[in-house]
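Hey, resending since the last one bounced:
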Amino acid sequence: MRLLLDEMYPPVVAEQLRARGHDVVSVHDPEYRHLEGAPDEEVVALAVADDRVLVTENVPDFRRLEADALARGQAHATLVFTSNRQFPRGEPGTTGRLVEALHTLMSERSTPRGSLFLKRPPAS
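The structure tokens again:
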């Protein structure tokens, strides 16, 4: 599974996942920076073109794009959704928990067939 992290995630998430051997890019990486602030359609198009699962917190907009693509019979990126409730921004341990949850997902599963909501890992 190859990931594209949307702009709400700090670059360190991609860096830490790459350090664990995963194929992860972020819209904050130099070669993807053109996606910072880009329309959601462009982010999805790149995820499809690069065969990447898109990780985002933007459920309403990306669910709509997914539904529109499916209704037209077009390809759409697989989506992994997170929430500020499960992974609160500004909380000190959030980055580590998000990295751990994504690492677990990437280690245990092949690319999901449909979109899914990422759960916070149990406290250790």
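The helical segments are 11-19, 40-49, 59-72, 94-108.

Sorry for the duplicate.
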